[in-house]
Design a protein that fits this description.
The chain is an alpha/beta fold. Helices cover about 30% and strands about 25% of the residues. Bound molecules: iron/sulfur cluster (2 copies). The site of one iron/sulfur cluster has 14 residues, from helix 9.
Length: about 325
């Protein structure tokens, strides 16, 4: 059973990190993997909070730097220079946070479950990683936390695109009852259904896989694989055989993720912070604490069970969903 430490007062971060041998980071250059927020997003981790984390890592004589990867869609975060510009706009400067910012646009292949994922160079070469994950909702995974921070945020934009494309629906006319559920749940209005026809607009399709997940007749199957499965595999490609400490910021819990400019509304009151050394355990513990306050809120809002990524993560050996919660 994995230990997960929970606290609400950030001054207890130091004590929480001591549970996971933070001293082992001494002398290491440490990427602090986080999402620095899409343009106009309001809920990404706050620079003041990130500075607190950076200071704790520096306290053990490690050399932290903030780290993320470029994205597949258009916008500032599509390129390294654009992302660096946006990070600065969002307050992630050396003056405010106490560390530099690095963005990767290239990586190295790592095979998991017979598929190759291109892991960002800075993660690939790191022996020690600090994961700072904001927990919130997500259209394709129900919830985004530590698993998603690496499964999507730790790989190159080409791999991100391949993962999304593989989760697009394949239509089987004979099995379709024209119930219209897929059209109702599609967050991007990419499907139109009437009594005779089923149509998909590929240009609108984001490859979230929600329509396939919700079709109960076998009318839709994944083009390649369930997005939540490849997400867990990609996360494993990033973190396997490395020393990683995970910090989940379970506050400002929005319906959608930090890559969404319009991620609101807030769907659950603030919970607090969790620290652990297992991405599956810490996400399960975060989800359980949220469900205690707002039962099944992510599934109700986003039509995908957040347990899928946790279940797949456990199946492929990314981590364990059994945990013991230690409250500080
Ligand atoms: S959910 Fe499945 S059965 Fe219903 S319309 Fe869509 S493809 Fe057809
Ligand atoms: S994969 Fe997602 S975006 Fe594409 S049609 Fe299905 S629900 Fe819509």
């Amino acid at each position: 059973m994995k230990k997960v430490v929970f606290f609400t007062d950030l001054r207890k971060l130091h004590a929480a990190l001591e549970h996971f041998d933070i001293q082992d980071f001494a002398g290491k250059k440490v990427p602090v993997k986080l999402h620095m927020g899409e343009d106009k997003n309001k809920y990404f981790p706050r620079p003041g909070f990130v500075k607190h984390v950076v200071d704790e890592i520096k306290n053990v004589s490690a050399d932290p730097y903030l780290f993320d990867t470029t994205v597949a869609y258009t916008g500032l975060r599509h390129s390294k220079t654009g992302y660096l510009k946006l990070a600065k706009i969002h307050g992630f400067t050396k003056k405010k946070v106490g560390s530099s910012v690095e963005i990767d646009d290239s990586g190295k292949p790592v095979k998991v479950e017979n598929k190759e994922y291109i892991v960002a160079d800075h993660l690939y070469y790191a022996s020690h990683i600090f994961a700072l994950s904001h927990v919130k909702g997500h259209v394709a995974t129900g919830m985004g936390g530590a698993i998603k921070n690496f499964g999507m945020g730790g790989v190159t934009k080409e791999t991100k695109q391949t993962m999304h494309h593989g989760s697009r629906p394949l239509y089987k006319k004979d099995a379709c009852t024209h119930c219209g559920v897929c059209a109702e749940v599609c967050p991007f209005n990419a499907i139109k259904v009437n009594e005779e026809n089923w149509e998909q607009n590929m240009r609108k399709c984001f490859g979230c896989g929600v329509c396939v997940d919700q079709c109960k007749t076998g009318g839709l199957t994944y083009k390649d694989a369930d997005f939540n499965f490849v997400l867990a595999c990609a996360a494993k490609a990033c973190v396997q055989d490395k020393k990683v400490i995970y910090l989940n910021d379970v506050n400002r819990i929005s319906k959608s993720c930090d890559c969404d400019p319009f991620a609101g509304p807030i769907i659950c009151p603030d919970i607090g912070y969790l620290v652990g050394d297992d991405p599956v355990a810490i996400d399960k513990a975060s989800l359980d604490l949220i469900n205690n306050v707002k039962k099944d809120v992510f599934e109700k809002e986003n039509h995908v069970s957040p347990l899928k990524q946790i279940k797949y993560g456990e199946e492929i050996g990314l981590g364990s969903s059994s945990y013991q919660l230690v409250e500080l």
